[in-house]
Amino acid sequence: MCRSCRATDAEIRWCPSLHCDLGLEFEQAVAAVARGLRTGEAAAPGHRFRQVLTVLRSLGTDEAARVLSLAARSQDEHVVGVDLAGDETQFPAKLFAEEFQKLRKSNPTLGITVHAGEGDGEQAIQNVRDAVELLGADRIGHGCAASRDPSVMALLKARDILVEVCPTSNVHTGTVSSIAEHPVRLFFDAGIRIAVCADNTLLSRTTAKQELIKLMDNKVFSAEEIHRIAKNALTAGFA
After folding, report:
1. Can you tell me the mean pLDDT for 105-123?
2. Catalytic residue among 88, 99, 118, 211
3. The CA-based dihedral angle spanning residues 17, 19, 22, 28, taken in that order and rounded to the nearest 10 degrees
4. Among candidates 223, 147, 157, which has minimal Cα distance to 186?
5. Global pTM exceeds 0.85
6. Of 3.20.20.140, 1.10.150.20, 3.80.10.10, 3.30.450.20, which CATH number belongs to 10-236?
7. In the prediction, which pLDDT does 119 show?
8. Annotated catalytic, 118?
9. Which of 41, 73, 94, 183 could form a disulfide with 130 if both were Cys (CB 3.0 to 4.6 A apart)?
10. Exposure pattern of 163-186 as b/e (b: 16+ CB <10 Å)?
11. Please, which pLDDT band fits residue 31 given cuts at 50, 70 and 90?
């Protein structure tokens, strides 16, 4: 996790595997995104934009190894972390433990975020634990299921794991019944760091700003708490 006073203003999270169907090489795709980020930084002096490469569970462990290797050798291209995403029910976190452990051992400066705990069963809870203990996650995407297990909540707190909460997305997927019922307050009250995210801006038709407003409008947080959450999230970027 970034502990410096200078925050990363934005992380562009994307999956290289989905951008090479027409002949583009992995390295070319990462370099193209990096050029765009540098252009943005040049247009907005003092701001920093980075990229996080996503591994899709459904593409298997061999493809995961390819993406993680790409991230490891692309740190000069503004790559600061990796992400595991996709169907966590059919492809639980533990299936990718070996690949992520190799990355953590060889490239300890790269951040790791794992989508886990988006479901409502025991497997979803275990996925959060495995993401932290087996994959070395610094951040957890969604994490809702963790709120139902005190030991997993304690693990997140003890390891200082940040949870990327996505309220509207979680309502759309049926993970929670409403914004007001979202467990984000439980994370906050337990002293677990959170960042409020949109998850999928296109499908959920929302932004991080709108998510913060919804949490305040639904009286989940006060305006002062929302301000504190947003400010703290800026220091949680991978760097």
Report:
1. 94
2. 118
3. -100
4. 147
5. yes
6. 3.20.20.140
7. 86
8. yes
9. 94
10. bbbbbbbbbbbebbeebeebbbbe
11. very high
